[in-house]
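Limitations
The structure tokens in this dataset are predictions for the assembled complex, not deposited experimental models. Users should treat interface geometry with appropriate caution, especially where small molecules or nucleic acid strands are included. An illustrative entry is reproduced here so readers can see what is and is not provided.
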Amino acid sequence: MRASTSPPGCIGTDGEHTLLEVSMGPHHPSTHGVFRMDVTLDGETVVKLKPVFGYLHRNHEKIAEKNSYLGSMPYTDRLDYICSLTNNWGYALAVEKLTGLSVPERAEYIRVILGELTRLINHSALAGFLLQDMGALGTPLMYAFREREKILDLFESLTGARMMCNYMRFGGCRCDLPPGWIEQTRSVVSRFPSFLDEFESLLTGNEILQARTEGVGALPGRLAVNAGVTGPMLRASGINYDIRKVDGYGAYGRFNFRVPLGERGDVFDRYMIRILEMRESLKILDQALRDIPGGPIMDPKAKLRNLRPKPGEAYGRIEGPKGELGFYLISDGGPNPYRYRVRPPSLINLTILEDMCLGQTIADAVVILGSVDIVLGEVDR
Amino acid sequence: MRGLDQIFVWIGREVAGWAPAPAQPLVSAILIIAGIMAVFGTCFALTTIAERKILGRMQNRFGPNRVGPCGLFQPLADAVKMLTKEDIVPFSADKTLHFLAPLVMTTPIWLAFAVLPFGRNMSALDLDSGILFFFAIGSASELAVFMAGWSSQNKYSLVGAMRAIAQMISYEVPLVLSTVPVLMLAGSLSLNEIVAAQGTHTLGGLARWNVFTPWGLAGLLLFLIAATAESNRSPFDLPEGESEIIAGYLTEYSGFKYALFFLGEYLGLFAITGLAVTLFLGGWRAPFQWLEWVPSWLWFGGKFGVLIFLFIWVRATLPRLRLDQLLNFSWRFLAPLTLINLAVAAAWHWTGAWESAAAAPVRWVLCAALIALPAHWLGRALRGAVPPPRKYHYAE
Amino acid sequence: MLNEIAFLLCAALTLAGAVAAMTLRNLAHCALCAAGAFAGLAAIYLQLDAEFAGFAQLLVYVGAIAILILFTVLLTRGAEIQPGGPAASTSRGMGLGVGALVTACLIGAIMASPGLRGHAPQTVHAPVKRIGEQLMNQYVMPLEAIGLLLTAALLGAVIIALREPPKEPPAP
Amino acid sequence: MNGAGIIQGMIETARNFAGSYHDPERLTTVQYPEEKLPPVENARTIPFLVYDGGDAMAGLRCTACTICEKECPPQCIYIIKDLAKKPDYVGKMQLQPKVFDIDMSVCMSCGICVEVCPFDAIKMDQVFELSTSDRFLGLLFHKEQLAKPNGYFSQLHKTEAAEIDARRHEDKRKAEASAAARAAAAKPLPPGGVK
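Predicted assembly:
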């Protein structure tokens, strides 16, 4: 028998301390899917962290280069499976740029409504998952999912599916709103603020949550910009960059809303920014539901099949709930794209993970990962 | 009603009476042991299902409701599952320790119930130093946790065991210290005498439970916080913090051994809850004199149930602390506060003569302030320099 | 009769634990065996009707000291014992000296006990209350002295454990 | 105050605990095998083939044009044409599928086959209890399993089916009218009629 008293997995010392290498994942309760963190620990402090991903790689881009333009649309649902409609939108935007199709007013409004509903789903679910990582036993998550169900019901009655919506088309939307949908949505939206208040009274003032998140995983604005971080994470670091404002794509130029900005860029700011963004989304939804015009929902020039754009390239980007979601397409005039590339916000926000985790404890690393908001379907593609 | 109160004592005596005289002590001991094991075994099964259902309701779901009426037979199904699962021992594990750990965890805990008075004349063992016995027995679980974490030869287990031991050592201090005022004022270490000391009544027939005094209330809160940590429950469930270290020292356990750990943890919780009831909530006594007709063991059970519900409620609400915060909380907040509480109890004792209608509230407020102000200051100091409140500005 | 068997069992547990703690190679096993020996000792106290001493022994030795030893084992991971190395350490002589001293004290105490001189051992009932009163009256000075000693030891431990403040780099 | 946020949170969970007993807004769970959600008209799960009339194989609307086979993103449709033609609802001779298989374990329920079908022959079903003990052949549906009557389709998607039926009815009426006109034109002039 080995007379060793040293525990398993010691990888030596750094002179003074013994380091322990722990491989967290891909089967680990807190890695949000099949994600692995190779963590080197000194006691409980992280001294090195290597994110390892690719376990969920499905060849999304290559498949899209082989499929027709239309055929890739349902695949985009499966990138970030929590927000399939914004993925649809980003892809549709790229193809519309490539082909020069225009989108009728009504379809733009429908897209904005669906996009903001998706943002509500994503942000509330994220706050729930974040608290789950902090050990709150799923209570906030269940509350978030309770509200998500109501929004998913809306999606189902409009698009036919709760998650894999496959709704937007190049030059418009697949089908018009069913009768009564606007009223249903209005009632869901009008009840959402009370859910947010409940959520905040459960969490925001909680001393344990504050202790766990204050100053944890702070990301300076400069570093965030250099790392290409986008979305709520960037705005929590105090950088004003929201593609809805910058590009004004879709009908966003017509709505009155504000972009909340954090100042310290720690986990608490990231949590709070998402809560505030949800409140702004509700404002956009109110305006869009009030002002939605009638009319067609498809560009009459649009055709479903045999789309052969002229040779060229296009980059369509939207402000997805997780950050800048971009689709880059090159057409060689054929029925399928010559090159198809996704800029996944989850992946690019994840690359800065080590810088945020160094010197923090392992429990913090889990929370920081949760606050980045990743979906492995999008990271690994 | 007197009969109902003493029914268990009576049954025990009658059954033991049938045995031949020399065997009577043995028979009555076996009866008591069987009774305690049956009651708290059932209690364990009921608590697992109640916890899941209450948590479910707090999270707006149903909880288990498929097995039996309202899911009441769920514990049976769980037991069948646990017993039939494959028992996996890691190849590189220290097999002896891996086997012994769940036994060391579960066996001593049963002993702790021996000294708890569950009702009038319903205490298995009236030890002169009962509370000391209780804490001495509890120390075995730390050894078990170490054995489990070490023997599994798994990094998560090891980290979990280190966390657990650090936590248990840290919280044992406030746990024991928070009971000291009670012992001091009751003048005894015997749990029966502590209950007896809370047996008198004050105006309006209100019982003189310790919890109705400032130091008792503070003591109960401190004791409950420390007890939550001792029994590894949320928000102090770091040793098993699922999202961080999977299941801590339980990572490599499955099947029956896991069930034993689970049982041990719940029994520990029950024992410590029973102790809280005995020390601060008057044990089996009724809160008012005119409620004395309700059987004493029902009072004990009721208070016990309320405290268990409180534990479940806290578990449904709070996120988990971090290790350094956990230790700081114990050493820099709980431990000093228990010492201060000792002084408050002394002050209460000295002002014992202030019983008049005018002086009693003064005494109460004075003592409450003596504990509340330090609590406030210690809390401020613990949280450190509070940064200015965050302002979120908006870009148009 | 039953009493003798119980005593023999407890004594065997204590001795076996102590021997195992000295001879086993795995430090964790040693520490756990030492805990077993402590528990056996507590059982002997209890058998002698010394409730308070027995439970205090369990609480302090099994609950605190054994855990401290285990914690030390966990924290000093580098200190591995070579499989072929000698079981005894270099401080063998000192250990022997301490052992001899303790044995001498014990023998003295046993020789002085009344049981040896044919008197029936008087049953001493020592409730906690009386122990407390004795500690607070007759033995208050030794108690305070021990308290002072322990406090000093605690302070010393804290000072040793305090991380040294980072030294200022010498001015160039 | 220390702990105020914690107490506030506990009040919130207590409210939800009580609310889950009386407020259906809070307890949204549907106890699936006993209760089911009301069907949603737009909902889609897997495709099926629509047929008219009483005979499933003879009444299939599918003309084996294989557009759906080409457009299906995961390529789970497999068609072999039958060379024997049969008349469709307006009497035009059309091809028909000899084999029409859909591998439901591959199908991702996107509904693109339905969108591209020019004959309204393939539509989305709403069944979801598809589990089988045979992973491979158990989920490979042949045209016999896929064929469902038009009445079933009208039950699922009322609005869409009504629209399609009206259009087809109109087409049929026009076709009959033109056929009648053609027949009338082709008929030799009755003797003694106008010249």
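Some entries come with short summary sentences. For this one: Confidence is low (pLDDT under 50) at residues 1-9 of chain A.
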